[in-house]
Amino acid sequence: MSLNHLICGSGPLLDTQGVLREPGYALRPPFEYGHDRIAAPRMRIKDWDYYLINDNKYAVALTFSDLGYIGLVSASVMDFDNRSFKTTSELVVMPLGSMGLPTSSDEGDIVWENKRCRVRFAHEGSTRRLSFFMARFSDDADLEVELLLDRFPRDSMVICTPWDENPKAFYYNRKVLGMRALGGFRWGGLFHQFESQDSLALLDWGRGVWTYDNVWYWAAAQGYQDGHVVALNLGYGFGNTHAASENMAFVDGVAHKLDEVDFGIPSAADGGYAYMEPWHLTDNEGRLDLVFAPSIDRVDNINVGGIVRSNQHQVFGTLTGHVVLDDGSELQIRGLRASAEHIHNRY
Fold first, then answer.
1. SS3 per-residue string spanning the chain
2. Phi, psi (5° rounding) for residue 117?
């Protein structure tokens, strides 16, 4: 039986000593986040917004992050038909909280630019408008993205996670899946418009102070199944999740809480993972049984002076199987577009 703790509190996220007040999960943000109570140097604070927009032909990922002693402005384009991808990142040295990420996932805008990039992630009433430009995204080809996100779901995944190694480290994370996406991107001579029913967006909004060396597994899926917007958020490996996991299924924006999951990534002969072979995702309660069929392994390795290092495998593909919802009914999943990642960060 699940022991996940549903947060009932409100007010500041941290106590006056900089310790997380109430670990657990929620369906909408319960706490106020700000840097004033954080008991760590500014270079240890990690704030980011990540958006993924996809239909059945392309996906675009946009990352804007201030990680204390380094900032990252990154974009990726995935081409599902050709099973290819391109990722380009712009590094910002020692931003120390100066990149202007808002303290709320419900309000506050990001407006930032340098000689190469322009970023504007803005709230416009009940919608979100994403404008992104990166010069020389590939060779001399620029990338422009203009998107409007609406149909915000009723529920989202919110989790407050501590670390055993450092009581003043914490992770405050919200994931919003299944928003409708309207707009498109231009990459050199390629123009793609997100306009079909399957054009959906997700937001991964993260704030916190981490320990230096971390590994995590995260999978996200969104699409239409039998006329319903179906989404999944699955993950583990990051901090102490004894109070709650981040695992949820969503049907038309309504959350169904799952407990612990395992991604079942096949082993490779060299002792690592065979990322491009089928994965078998299961849970500890017999409610989740999915096969992930990979098509693209978006590999990205960052090494800045041996201090900041990130080894990333974000695999794109489709999920097939079933999930048992909170009312005991069985949701069939057939070819649901998804990404599943294994990340090892040292920063």
1. CCCCCECCCCEECECCCCCECCCEEECCCCEECCHHHCCCCHHHEEEEEEEEEECCCEEEEEEEEECCCEEEEEEEEEECCCCEEEEEEEEEECCCCCCCCCCCCCCCCEEEECCCEEEEEEEECCEEEEEEEEEEEECCEEEEEEEEEECCCCCCEEEEEECCCCCCCEEEEEEEEEEEEEEEEEECCEEEEECCCCCEEEEEEEEEECCCEEEEEEEEEEEEECCEEEEEEEEECCCCCCCCCCCEEEECCEEEECCCEECCCCECCCCCECCCCCEEEEECCCCEEEEEEEEEEEEEEEEECCCEEEEEEEEEEEEEEEEECCCCCEEEEEEEEEEEEEEEEEC
2. -125, 150
Prediction pTM value: 0.97
Average pLDDT over the chain, rounded to an integer: 96
CB count in 10 Å sphere of residue 293: 15
Instruction: With cut-offs at 50, 70 and 90, classify the pLDDT of residue 346.
Output: confident
- Band (pLDDT 50/70/90 cuts) for residue 2 is low
Structure tokens at 12: 């500041």
State the Cα–Cα distance between residues 72 and 90, nearest whole angstrom.
6
Sole residue written with tokens 């549903």: 6
pLDDT of residue 287: 98
Instruction: Judge whether 253 and 178 are in contact, CB under 8 Å.
Output: yes
Note the pLDDT tens digit of each residue in 265-286: 999 999 999 999 999 999 999 9
Kindly report the backbone phi and psi dihedral angles of residue 37, in degrees, each rounded to the nearest multiple of 5, phi listed first.
-100, 0
Contact 90, 116 (CB under 8 A): yes
pLDDT of residue 276: 98
